[in-house]
């Protein structure tokens, strides 16, 4: 699976030899929160986790601190590892600024969903586990047919992970948690579309708005004989839609990183021209 991951030099700054990208910054913040919890105690989680009812009591810091506090366990460590693995791959595709906005969108989506549901079914939200799940599912959605662990298709692994989450909520009769998770994933998908992800799913709202067309002057009549450039390059007459379909098929087979740099630039130009 390592062939699907690649690094990026688009970092905010460096800590020694470590390039601090948006993904690395979030992972480091989560790791620091876990370390502080180890030394301070579990009471820190209760003080910084998010609950809508406590927000009404004036504890306004909770919506901003919940992602960065969690207890120490093998699962919390694995969450950080997987968040780094899949997050850096998405960031190589988006760039550090859009990835930062994606994290903001994920945080806002989960906070809003938990707020709406939390008044009906009280609970507490903390840790990066749900954030890591959202990043993993977005990574899968960007290339559903690429091979995952042991040759399993990414889409099949995604269905398995979501099914396990749903079954765990059902087993615990945590109806509020299940509803909050499903609602947050819908909102996360919209946020992801707004930064340029999920282009394979145009039915998801939130895509970049098309710019208003400008009024152009009538073009001068062209000569009836073919131009020199057209006679040499008949392949350029292929429609934009057909070329976009070819590139999207390639993304569907091998993920966005399977495109060359020239193909990525070409796809962006075709998208803008289609608007």
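Sequence proposed for the structure above (275 residues):
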């Amino acid at each position: 699976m390592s062939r699907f991951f690649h690094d990026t030099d688009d970092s905010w700054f460096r800590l020694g030899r470590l390039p601090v990208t948006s993904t690395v910054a979030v992972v480091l913040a989560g790791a620091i929160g876990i370390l502080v919890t180890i030394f301070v105690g579990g009471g820190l989680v209760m003080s910084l986790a998010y609950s809508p009812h406590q927000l009404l009591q004036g504890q306004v810091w909770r919506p901003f601190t919940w992602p960065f506090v969690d207890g120490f366990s093998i699962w919390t460590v694995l969450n950080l590892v997987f968040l780094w693995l899949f997050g850096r791959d998405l960031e190589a595709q988006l760039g550090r600024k859009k990835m930062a906005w994606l994290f903001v969108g994920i945080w806002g989506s989960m906070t809003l969903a938990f707020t709406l549901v939390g008044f009906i079914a009280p609970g507490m939200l903390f840790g990066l586990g749900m954030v890591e799940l959202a990043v993993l599912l977005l990574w899968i959605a960007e290339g559903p047919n690429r091979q995952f662990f042991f040759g399993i298709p990414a889409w099949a692994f995604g269905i398995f992970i979501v099914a396990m989450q749903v079954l765990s909520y059902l087993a615990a009769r945590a109806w509020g948690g299940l509803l909050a998770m499903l609602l947050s994933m819908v909102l996360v998908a919209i946020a992801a579309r707004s930064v340029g992800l999920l282009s394979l799913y145009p039915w998801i709202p939130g895509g970049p708005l098309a710019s208003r067309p400008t009024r152009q002057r009538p073009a001068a009549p062209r000569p009836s004989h073919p131009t020199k450039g057209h006679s040499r390059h008949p392949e350029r007459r292929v429609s934009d839609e057909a070329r976009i379909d070819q590139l999207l098929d390639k993304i569907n087979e091998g993920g966005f990183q399977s495109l060359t740099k020239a193909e990525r630039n070409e796809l962006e130009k075709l998208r803008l021209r289609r608007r």
